[in-house]
Amino acid sequence: MKETKRTILIPYDFTMLSDCALEHGVQIGRLLDSDITLLNIIDNLKDEVHVKDRLTEKAKEAQKEFHILPKVMVRPGKVSQAIKDVATNINADLVIMKTSGPKGIQRFTGSRAIKVMYGSKIPFIVIQAPPKREIIKQVIVPIDFRFENKEKLKWINFLTKIYTPSVYLFRPNVSDYRIRNNLKFATNFLEGRNIGFELVHARGKKSFVEEAIDFSNFIDADLLIIMLSRSITLGKILFGLNDQKYITNKYKVPVMCLNPRTDLRKFAGFR
User: In this structure, are 82 and 147 located in the same domain?
Assistant: First the structure.
């Protein structure tokens, strides 16, 4: 039985940032040998033909520039739900999406990007700028007290089967048995698979999120891998959403966002 080729979905709205998302898609698509699909969400069906023509032209431009011909899709609906629905329907392995940061009340309740990602079984990479280099070389994985940290390691395991990035496990400067357990699992997991890594301790002078972001800039990271919160609570809103701080970080480091219990079993390396 012929194996279905992997697919990367890229929400595309004809902006410069969505062009950056396409560049990231080309970079990762070459690593994973994946197809690329450009998706535009419309408010009115009367715009469908016009928008599809524009997307088709963009795909042709991408073929000339990157030697990859993306597929194109136009769908009506609410952006926050339509992207997840299309990603599920086409069995996408990854969604690469731009963000320009939260505006107004979104600074407290979370940007549109956050709302799109919550609850999705498919991983997202959120970008704010073009790729720094042709290949992902430096990956940082913040380790906290949550059990779901283990799912981040499954992605590291998969990526290292394709190439060899430098992996940094970034841990808080606190003593907590849950963090110790997660670190023990992480080190055993990576060492058992001969995956090289460096364990880095936060200094504890700022919040853990801020120090993780600063460290990602210090090592010139290409990717941060985080686990999204299970839900947006009033307390998280009052103190600021850590998820939001990561994905709109001031250094514009791309962030891979996983939801708790993300289904990663389709990749053989995750078993």
Answer: no
